[in-house]
Amino acid sequence: MLSQFCHQHQQCVDDALAKAQMICDDQKVSLTPLRKKVLKLIWEAGHSATKAYDLLESLKSDDPSAKPVTIYRALDFLLSNGLVHKIESHNSFIGCSHPTRQHNCAFLICNQCGSIQECCDDGAMMDTIKTNIDSTSFQIHNITLEIQGICLECS
Ligand SMILES: [Zn+2]
Ligand SMILES: [Zn+2]
Ligand SMILES: [Zn+2]
Asked: What is the 124 CA–ligand 3 centroid distance (Å)?
């Protein structure tokens, strides 16, 4: 299931956590053990998105006192620091595959296996969207593009 993205997913998890630490040090924000744990859980789910509820359940096995607000605060932190993305159509979360670069990405979501890939185009795709929207004088806060289909592995 993970083979189109990686051979050793543990490597992805380790890399993601190391990068997150680097980014937080750089931004002088603190990757607390809880934030790190939530990020780790999100990555350990593989290249697919995880619901906050499932994160809470996993967290509870370690810390029975964990509450939804515990998870949402950690997710807010991870989202605002670009370490995870929210997949709106699934109301779930996925680790950013290249958090050291600022970017707008489209998410390619496989309807069969649930894998999610970030598709980056260095801005051209988003620029086209923005140029089109500019003429309506609508103020954009955020663009999330989610494209559903069948991945290479499943096709
Ligand atoms: Zn992987
Ligand atoms: Zn990303
Ligand atoms: Zn698939």
From this structure: 26
Residue 25 and residue 36: Cα distance in Å, rounded? 13
Which ligand has the nearest atom to the CA of 109? 3
Domain 9-95, what fold? Arc Repressor Mutant, subunit A (1.10.10)
Q: Which ligand is nearest to the CA of 85?
A: 2
**Measured in angstroms, how far is the CA atom of residue 38 from the centroid of ligand 2?**
17
Rounded Cα–Cα distance for residues 75 and 78 (Å): 5
Give me ligand 3 centre to Cα 71, in Å.
28
Q: Which tokens go with 138?
A: 């609508």
Task: Write the pLDDT tens digit of every residue in 26-79.
Answer: 999 999 999 999 999 999 999 999 999 999 999 999 889 999 999 999 999 999
Q: Which tens digits make up the pLDDT trace of 64-85?
A: 999 999 999 999 999 999 999 9
Q: Which CATH architecture has domain 105-149?
A: 2-Layer Sandwich (3.30)
DSSP label at residue 147: E
